[in-house]
User: Which sequence fits this backbone?
């Protein structure tokens, strides 16, 4: 059985990789939405090695977001998944690096483009879980529902050329 190519790595697991000196290391910083509602805390940075850059923030979501979003019967059995957050501790989500701005003085990351309700409804995962391109596409489609590039990118995730085209969009441009 072939194992799919891993395209995202946590910065913590990569020896020899670090945040460049001209960028802020936002691990441990609070993530808030445009209304200053707490989404969670940046737990790690997700790197695509083929493009050699950080493409996502790995965010441990705030308990208020979990409690408010825990609706186990929101989806019918015939539609598949039964809840956005399961009782097994899925309490992380990813945020594209280009979807945030930095508030350096308060050590906060601000998401002006993605709101609290969107984060609340986003599919979460467990800390340390490997994420595949299908998950990335699902998340991009939730965060940017009108973006047609996100629906086609990722249909094939077997080589680095797909990584280059997938991450070559404004959602993955670093905040200044």
Assistant:
């Amino acid at each position: 059985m072939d194992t799919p190519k891993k395209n995202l790595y946590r910065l913590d697991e990569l020896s020899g990789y670090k945040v460049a000196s001209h960028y802020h290391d936002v691990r441990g910083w609070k993530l808030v939405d445009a209304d200053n509602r707490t989404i969670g805390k940046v737990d790690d940075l997700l790197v695509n090695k083929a493009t050699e850059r950080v493409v996502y923030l790995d965010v441990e979501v705030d308990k208020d977001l979990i409690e408010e979003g825990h609706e186990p019967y929101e989806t019918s059995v015939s539609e598949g998944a039964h809840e956005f957050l399961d009782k097994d501790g899925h309490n992380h989500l990813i945020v594209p690096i280009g979807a945030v701005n930095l508030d350096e003085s308060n050590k906060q990351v601000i998401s002006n483009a993605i709101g609290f309700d969107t984060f609340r409804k986003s599919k979460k995962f467990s800390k340390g879980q490997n994420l595949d391109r299908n998950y990335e596409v699902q998340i991009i489609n939730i965060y940017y529902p009108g973006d047609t590039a996100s629906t086609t990118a990722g249909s094939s995730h077997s080589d680095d050329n797909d990584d280059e085209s997938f991450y070559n969009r404004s959602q993955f441009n670093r905040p200044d």
